[in-house]
Amino acid sequence: MKAKIILDKLLNLFLTYKPINTYMSKSTEVTQTKPYTPIALADSAQWRKIQKTGKSTTPYTEKEIQTHFKPHILEYSCKIQVLSKRLALAIPLLAVLLSDRRSEANSAADDNAAEFRALCNLVNLAQATIETQPTTAAPKQTAIYIGALNLSIAPKEFTEAIDVSKEWSTLPETNKQKLGGDQTYWAFYKAAKQELEKNKQWIQQWTTPAPSQKATVHVKAAAERAFQVFTTETEQQGKIQTPQQLATEALYGPGKTTATETMAGDSDRAKVCSGHNDAAKNKAGQALYTDLLCLCAASSENAGTKQACGKGLQTATTNTNWTPNSNDKAAGDKLVAACERFGSPGKLSEPTVEAAWAQLKQLIRRETGPASPQELVLGKVDGGGGSFAGCTGNAASNKGQCAKYKAEHFKKEGATVPWLMKLRAAAAAAAEIDKQTKAKETLVMELNLLNNTITAALSSHQIPQILSKPMSPPAAAATDCSKHKDSKTTCENTGKCKWKGKV
Fold first, then answer.
1. Which of 76, 112, 205, 217 reaches 20 to 30 Å from 61, CA-CA?
2. Which UniProt keywords are given for this protein, alphabetically ordered (predicted)?
3. What pLDDT, in 10s, does the model give residues 21-31?
4. Cα 442 to the chain's mean position, in Å?
5. Whole-model pTM?
6. Sheet of 400-404, strands arranged across
7. Residue 462 to residue 455: CA distance in whole angstroms
8. Rounded distance between C-alpha atoms, residue 379 and residue 363, angstroms
9. β strands within 176-222, DSSP E
10. Per-residue pLDDT tens digits for 402-416
11. Helix then strand then coil, % of the chain, to nearest 5
12. Are 397 and 299 spatial neighbours (Cβ–Cβ below 8 Å)?
């Protein structure tokens, strides 16, 4: 900026510099001035004649010309010559200084400090503890128990046709026919049969003797709803990846749970961080971990690279130069640990991910310093005006300490940077787990109500059974012979007493 101001002033001085045509009036002897450009003066026939002969065709005398014109002309001519020489020396240097970004010899302290902090927000989100509401709700197990109650009152041949040791494909045809010939319910039948065998004694107390027709209808209806719950739970099981798994992959890359020393895939930093001369090897955007290395890891090219992401990092964080595909973990783990000083922007959720991404996206720019402008660059690039030499780890000679993202990950439909997609998926999975937890708790309440209803229906037929059992006759009152001790006839007539004589 200072160079531009200086050059503007010099050019303005050069273009607006106007010598003074000073002449003396014979009558008044008052000095008057009339500005005109050097070009206009040079084109003047009078000037050419004066310059060649020293004599004027005007009414002025030679003495007047020598006295008034020539000293001024010589003075301004000298000034123009000096100014022209200075501009000739200054313009090439100033033209370089006027490039869009100030050219520096090497990476310098805090060149990438803002980018580092923004990237750290995303790194910290990827490591944040994902809070999902714990639940003890087990609607599937309750559904299986209801299925077992249903099987306990089903016809014997139906229940016996369910061979839990076989899959539907290997089940004998006769068994299939007894089960209706449809495998839709097979998994539910197997689970219910296993539950029945495990808790047969407990279940039979509700189903023996055979329940009434009304109770049977209740049980069948409940079993149908239980089957729907069982099927839904089975289909969802394993479909949702854990949020922590997805977040970890955002940090380290697809399928990875930690960093390795050779995760870069190539020893050429310019290829790894920007795809320079080999686009297929560009790892920018694949993992937050790799982007951190490209942005902040020290380079053997210059010691200034150790402080590019912040003064003081060179002491213990970037004190070791990064050699891609050799010491990736050793260099990267320190940077991940350094991110902790910024703290987490909150728990992993869709709003926090989008807010952190918006902050970083503002720092990804079009780099116009090199002769061929580079799109989607994060970090410092030297702008010397030559051909871009890649993100080599040092901002010098049209190179940079940077990460250059692929154009395919920035479309008008939205950004699809791989680590960003993983973070978004992790946040969505966490939200889905919370949603399912609440749904399961509601479902368990529903199934428990169904279970209580059919249990009541099954037990209702036992009440009249209890009441219809012949009551045990009350014990006959003992005959009190002492009441008949005064009469032999009365005593013997009772049939229970024996006369032994009057007491």
1. 76
2. Cell membrane, Glycoprotein, GPI-anchor, Lipoprotein, Membrane, Signal
3. 433 333 333 33
4. 30
5. 0.60
6. 365-367, 374-381, 400-404
7. 11
8. 8
9. none
10. 999 999 999 999 999
11. 55, 5, 35
12. no
